[in-house]
Write a structure and sequence with these properties.
The protein has 437 residues and is mainly alpha-helical. It is built from 20 helices and no strands.
């Protein structure tokens, strides 16, 4: 059914759908708007390696991007919770474009490395948190605009789509960086990120759904749970798991960069890395069809060991065909793991703190990606490519540990007097398989 017909039926008394509420333009804009966020770590790494001639220096700059995101990402989410997404996104989008432009210039300038570090930190600190804010925006819409009977199923499908979109973007982002750097020059990915931020992040901010938080008025603000409600074991497990997935992204890409650098074609690392997204996106989308009896804790414990197995295969070979198989195996586990982790984040976010918790989880991806890129860059320089290829094993193990810890959290007795909204409590029960959808 088309968007127009959906709107018509909604207007004649039929129940509204998510598509009829957000409109047909929302998902394409929100999808492309998250691309710059996925490009910045690899774009900075590629630019610094090309401009300053050091893989370890590039890795450290990637870590500075992650540090900026770690320190300021959650504040951006908190600001969106308080003042609405529209103005926050417009301001940070503009600042991010300025930081990216400065980085493109300073890398090739005679200024010392410390100035490059500052530029990288500024890029991370001003990165628009499009993916977590999109999740928060859609969760709020599902839990307020749709009939209660349909909310759990739609919420599960929405988290599946959002995580699949993230997976495609976080794999295709480095692929696009490699493509632009290969066919143009190392500055091209940075310029591309600036253009996409100006056009699509601004479009996402100005979209009618961007008024959702402001429309809630002071009543929504008064209902916000205290900040301490976010610092729970359940939220920590989610952030740890997403951090581990980010580590897998960063360490795998840096390992492949070291491998392609050995053969004199470092800019092609992103192209090989893109293989990991093929199975990942397909399996992530299929999560929406998983039965409710396949609970979230079980999904995480099912797929995280597959990620470890794939990383072990990657570390044990130098054959490109086997590397491709290993990347496909890892990707098939990363997608559903991300869906599961962000579904857990949606259910565990305290009332009125959805954007903050989603930003914490979203920032954890970049932080993990940046930290592992820096560590693996140094290891590749000092210990060699073989050692770098083994680091994704440790990264995948972090996700597995998060899965085990989540099992403890899932079966720990919980009080019912938390700051969560009643509708979100309802959706949690259904998503976890405790009721039928």
């Amino acid at each position: 059914m088309t968007d127009n017909s959906t709107r018509t039926t909604a207007g004649t008394g039929s129940e509204p759908t998510l598509f009829s509420v957000v409109g047909r333009s929302y998902f394409p804009i929100a999808f492309i708007a998250r691309m710059p966020f996925a490009m910045i770590v690899v774009g900075v790494l590629t630019l610094v390696v090309a401009g300053r001639g050091s893989l370890s220096l590039g890795g450290i700059n990637s870590a500075m991007v992650g540090l900026g995101t770690a320190l300021f990402g959650s504040f951006i989410g908190a600001a969106a919770d308080r003042w609405g997404q529209r103005y926050v996104l417009l301001v940070v989008g503009l600042l991010n474009c300025l930081a990216l432009a400065f980085m493109a210039w300073v890398v090739f300038s005679p200024l010392p490395d410390i100035v490059v570090f500052i530029a990288a930190f500024a890029i991370g600190a001003t990165s628009p948190q499009v993916a977590p804010l999109s999740r928060s925006r859609l969760v709020d819409i599902v839990l307020t605009a749709l009939p209660p009977s349909r909310r759990p199923k739609v919420l599960n499908g929405t988290m599946a789509y959002e995580s699949a979109a993230d997976e495609v973007i976080f794999v295709f982002g480095p692929f696009l960086v490699g493509l632009l750097a290969t066919f143009f020059n190392p500055v091209a990915p940075i310029i591309g990120a600036i253009v996409m931020t100006m056009v699509f992040v601004s479009g996402f901010a100005l979209h009618p759904t961007g008024r959702a938080r402001a429309a809630g008025g002071s009543a929504e603000l008064d209902e916000r749970a205290p900040a301490k409600d976010m610092f729970t074991g359940g939220v920590f497990v989610v952030v740890l798991g997403v951090f581990g997935v980010g580590m897998v992204f960063g360490s795998t890409l840096t390992a492949l960069t070291a491998l392609t650098n050995d053969i004199g074609r470092p800019e092609e690392a992103g192209l090989i890395y893109g293989v990991m997204g093929i199975g990942s996106a397909v399996v992530a989308i299929s999560v929406a069809a998983f039965p409710s009896s396949f609970t979230l804790w079980a999904r995480l414990l099912c797929f995280s060991p597959i990620m470890v197995i794939g990383s072990l295969l990657l570390a044990s070979t130098e054959s490109l065909p086997i590397i491709v198989v290993a990347l496909l195996l890892m990707g098939s586990a990363i997608g559903p793991s991300l869906v599961t982790l962000f579904s857990l984040a949606a259910e565990r976010a305290p009332r009125g703190r959805s954007a903050t918790v989603m930003s914490m989880a979203g920032s954890a991806i970049i932080v993990g990606q940046s930290v592992s890129s820096a560590i693996n860059g140094v290891l590749a320089d000092v210990e060699g490519t073989a050692t770098a290829m083994a680091v994704p094993v440790a990264a995948s193990t972090v996700v597995l540990i998060a899965g085990v810890l989540n099992l403890v959290v899932a079966f720990r007795p919980r009080g019912r007097g938390s700051g969560h909204r009643g509708s979100k409590q309802e959706s949690r029960a259904v998503i976890d398989g405790e009721q039928e959808t």
